[in-house]
Amino acid sequence: MPQYRLSRPSCRAEWDVYHRIRQDVLLESRKYAMEHPDEEDEPHHYPLLLWRDNDPIGTIRIDKLDDTAAALRLVAIDPVLQGQGHGRALLTEAERFARDLGCAKAVVYSTTEAIGYYEAGGFTEDDWAECEIAGVAQMVKPLG
Ligand SMILES: CC(C)(COP(=O)(O)OP(=O)(O)OC[C@H]1O[C@@H](n2cnc3c(N)ncnc32)[C@H](O)[C@@H]1OP(=O)(O)O)[C@@H](O)C(=O)NCCC(=O)NCCS
């Protein structure tokens, strides 16, 4: 069985992999990276690489919104490795990370295409933010 873990990129090479996976997968992240060049230093934001054994295969950023909720953002699995169960492992590790931050629920803005992915992970559609974005679903999962 492969071992998965999340860890903050710890050197320039790991940051390069983090940005490469995001840029390969998430078009929005190209714009986002330009608008947030100092992401690496923002408090309460946790940019993380997903490792499978010794290989970095995915990314996520976990934002602690307040004492109860963590937002999962920029969720991405390396395109050549999608559809093999790694995304499910990424959610499991992200939930563990959010619980360790003291959060009672995980929340996401999901694209229409990714709703099934989050549903498979136990998320349900529920409004958690006042700001509604067209074409984006708000989803929530309590962290038991
Ligand atoms: C979404 C993403 C992270 C899923 O990762 P993955 O490794 O392909 O997912 P998995 O193979 O672990 O699938 C986990 C479960 O989600 C389901 N699933 C995955 N992608 C899905 C999709 N687009 N629509 C519906 N269900 C999906 C799988 O069928 C599986 O369900 P099961 O365990 O009941 O069989 C990955 O496809 C990705 O990086 N996509 C592009 C970026 C993106 O859309 N991010 C989310 C933005 S909000």
Task: Please describe the structure with a list of short key phrases separated by commas or semicolons.
single chain; 144 residues; alpha+beta; Aminopeptidase; seven-stranded mixed β-sheet; binds coenzyme A
CATH class call: Alpha Beta
Number of domains: 1
Helix content: 25-40%
Fraction of residues in β-strands:
25-35%
Measured distance between first and last alpha carbons: 25 Å
Order of helices and strands: EHHEEEHEHEE
CATH architecture: 3-Layer(aba) Sandwich
Strand order of the largest sheet: 1-2-3-4-5-7-6
What is the CATH topology assignment?
Answer: Aminopeptidase
**Overall pLDDT metric:** 89
Largest sheet: 7 strands, mixed
Q: Which structural class best describes the helix and strand composition?
A: alpha+beta
What do these coordinates show?
By secondary structure, the protein is of the alpha+beta class. It has one domain (4-142): Gcn5-related N-acetyltransferase (GNAT) (Aminopeptidase, 3-Layer(aba) Sandwich). Helix content is 31%, strand content 33%. It contains four helices and seven strands, in the order βααβββαβαββ. It has helices at residues 12-25, 27-35, 86-100, 115-120; strands at 4-7, 45-52, 55-64, 69-77, 105-111, 124-125, 136-142. A seven-stranded mixed sheet has the order 1-2-3-4-5-7-6, with helices on both faces. β3 (55-64) and β4 form a beta hairpin. The chain is globular. The mean pLDDT is 89. Residues 25-26, 75-77, 82-88, 110-111, 113-114, 116-117, 120 line the site of coenzyme A.
